[in-house]
Amino acid sequence: MGRELKGSTLGVIGYGAIGREVVRIAGAMGMRVLVSDPYVKDVEQTAFDELLKESDYVAPLALATAETENLMNAAAFAKMKPGAYLINVSRGNLVDEAALEAALDSGKLAGCAMDVGRAPDQMPTPRLAARPDVIATPHTAGLTLPAIEHQSLETVAQAGEIVKGRVPKGALNAAHWKRRP
């Protein structure tokens, strides 16, 4: 038997373009959504530890940086609600896979869905992917014709903003950006 998403709680770590879309979809499905992203001011924030404690599903969607390396580690998994699920469809280096495996082995987590991992090709690690409590798929984001077209048009629009001397939409370093002559 599966679980009902309506009425369950989704914790989203990182409120960028993908995080915003996930929040929109989850809300439309009747889920309670908690967001943690210390760099975004236009959303109600939930403290990271509280998000882990309250969420039935946790989706780390933060940027891959030195600060977020192994964000989901043994300490984070220990704070998660018993029986919760991890959904990693962002970056493999956000998750300490040994700690994830230990959390699954102990029964702390009910399961994991992932399309990224720490294998050299960023795919889910074969050992984790083979587990019955893990759903692992190839990471295919950006590999469809509509996605390629969208990305191309977005790149052109960003270049157009730079030419006009404006910060491109979605710039990650907007506070430090300047047009060079």
Question: Can you describe this structure?
Answer:
It is globular and about 55 Å long. It has a six-stranded parallel sheet with strand order 2-1-3-4-5-6, sandwiched between helices. The chain folds into two domains: 9-136, Rossmann fold (3-Layer(aba) Sandwich), CATH 3.40.50.720; 145-176. Helix content is 32%, strand content 15%. The longest helix is centred in the C-terminal third of the chain and has 19 residues, at 145-163. It is of the alpha/beta class and 181 residues long. The protein contains six helices and six strands, in the order E-H-E-H-E-H-E-H-E-H-E-H.
Would you spell out the secondary-structure blueprint of this structure?
Layout: E1 9-13, H1 17-28, E2 32-36, H2 48-54, E3 57-60, H3 74-79, E4 84-88, H4 97-106, E5 109-114, H5 126-129, E6 134-136, H6 145-163
Keywords:
181 residues; alpha/beta; Rossmann fold; 2 domains; six-stranded parallel sheet; 6 helices; 6 strands
Mean pLDDT: 87
Q: How many domain units?
A: 2
Secondary structure: number of strands: 6
Which regions have little confidence, pLDDT < 50, spanning 5+ residues? none
Helical proportion, percent range:
25-40%
Q: Rounded to an integer, what's the Rg over CA atoms?
A: 18 Å
Structural class: alpha/beta
Query: What is the CATH C level class of the largest domain, in words?
Result: Alpha Beta
**Spatial gap, N to C terminus:** 61 Å
String of helices and strands: EHEHEHEHEHEH
CATH topology of the largest domain: Rossmann fold
Largest sheet, strands/sense/barrel = 6 strands, parallel
Helix segment tally: 6
Q: Any idea what the shape is?
A: globular
Second CATH tier, the architecture of the largest domain: 3-Layer(aba) Sandwich
Spatial arrangement of strands, main beta sheet: 2-1-3-4-5-6
Percent of residues in beta strands? Answer: 15-25%
The fourth-level CATH homologous superfamily of the largest domain is NAD(P)-binding Rossmann-like Domain
